[in-house]
Write a structure and sequence with these properties.
The chain is α/β, with parallel strands linked by helices and 356 residues long. The protein contains 8 helices and 18 strands. Strand 10 and strand 11 form a beta hairpin. The longest helix is centred in the C-terminal third of the chain and has 16 residues. The protein starts with a strand and ends in a 25-residue tail after the last helix.
């Protein structure tokens, strides 16, 4: 029976790669665009971090990092500096340390001493981990695609999925603009997952949000990806440029508030990183994000014949190796490397403070 993956972003392609690596045959990936990764993936910031506020996301990072460090994806370990404006960072640092992640707890004075270019007003505490960093999502996507193709995965691009087909309590395939495919379905369509779920009466809690990223002139030095909790403001080095954004400032699909969102992002950046004021704006990018209310992924196989892997809330790139391995295990009806029982679509208890 075929294994049908809906979605050719970093998650769907990772699943195709890792599933085919385990020897699973007759895998077909369906992508509505001409090229893979032209949805959310192409706008990915490329962040790779182990610092999360829940154990399950930390475990996803630990498992993924084992793989990511073996790939040639230009991984620059510039570190992640997370500034907490509301709560004390110590509880999450202790949790991370307990899992084997040697992140550091910093007081405001220590932040200023080590990162003198920052304005630390309002910072209650911070955490830092030097082994976090940034890499190139396009490189990883290409590795996944080439590996999957070499393993026999078929890629059907420019093919839109119209609906999921269900008989009784079991999903049996999909209908596309180019025909019907029967088999086990893996729904990894990002922001499109919600509407496809609705074709079988399934309410997947995906919130479509539009984010804005401002590309500014480069700085003459390296610095860690720096972000704030809970505003979601961040700044990162991007080749010869820098990117600034605010994951907490997101808009719906229309563009009515783009100017306002960009203005707020720039103001927040100048406040925290004063040197930004002297930099010119090169361009503004925008993308849709498949977020969940609690900023955790949905990985669910509670319906026979259907596996859901969506809602990665900006974490898809960094967590794609773990997701690929987990979904491959679910396809084979084996126990996954991480307990994902808390990631079902009907959960109500997980809270995550960091979205980026």
């Amino acid at each position: 029976m075929s294994k049908i993956i809906i979605g050719g972003g970093i998650i769907g392609t990772a699943i195709a790669y890792y599933a085919s690596q385990t020897g699973i045959k007759d895998i077909v990936l369906i992508e509505k665009e001409k090229m893979l990764g032209t949805g959310v993936t192409q706008y990915c910031s490329g962040g790779i971090r182990s610092q999360f506020t829940t154990e399950i996301n930390c475990k996803f990072s630990i498992e993924s990092l084992k793989e990511l460090q073996q790939f040639n994806i230009d991984f620059k370990k510039l570190g992640y500096l997370i500034l907490d404006m509301k709560n004390d960072s110590m509880p999450r640092v202790k949790m991370q340390n307990g899992l084997g992640i040697p992140s550091e707890y910093l007081k405001p004075g220590q932040v200023k001493e080590r990162f003198s270019y920052l304005y630390t007003d309002g910072v209650k505490s911070a955490s830092f981990y030097q082994e976090d960093g940034i890499a190139d999502p396009a490189m990883l996507l290409e590795i996944y695609e080439k590996g999957a193709r070499a393993n026999g995965v078929r890629f059907l691009t420019e093919t839109k999925v119209v609906k999921i087909i269900k008989e009784g309590n079991q999903v049996i395939g999909i209908e596309t603009t180019k025909g019907i495919h029967n088999g086990t379905v893996v729904l990894a369509a990002g922001v499109q997952s919600k509407e496809l779920g609705e074709t079988i009466g399934l309410n997947i809690p995906i919130i479509k949000k539009r984010k804005y990223v401002v590309v500014i002139d480069a700085f003459g030095y390296d610095f860690p990806l720096t972000m704030e909790i809970p505003t979601g403001w961040y700044i990162k080095k991007e080749g010869e440029d820098a990117l600034i954004g605010m994951s907490g400032k997101v808009e719906e699909k229309d563009f009515k508030k783009q100017e306002e969102a960009v203005e707020e992002t720039i103001e927040a950046s100048i406040h925290r990183f004063p040197s930004v004021e002297k930099k010119g704006i090169k361009k503004v990018l925008s993308s849709m994000s498949d977020e969940t209310p609690d900023k955790h992924a949905i990985i669910d196989n509670s319906i026979e014949g259907l596996i859901i892997a969506t809602g990665f809330s900006g974490h898809g790139f960094m967590h794609s190796p773990a997701v690929g391995k987990i979904v491959a295990s679910l396809i084979k009806q084996e126990k996954p490397i991480i307990d994902i029982s808390g990631l079902r679509s009907n959960r109500k208890h997980i809270k995550e403070a960091i979205a980026i």
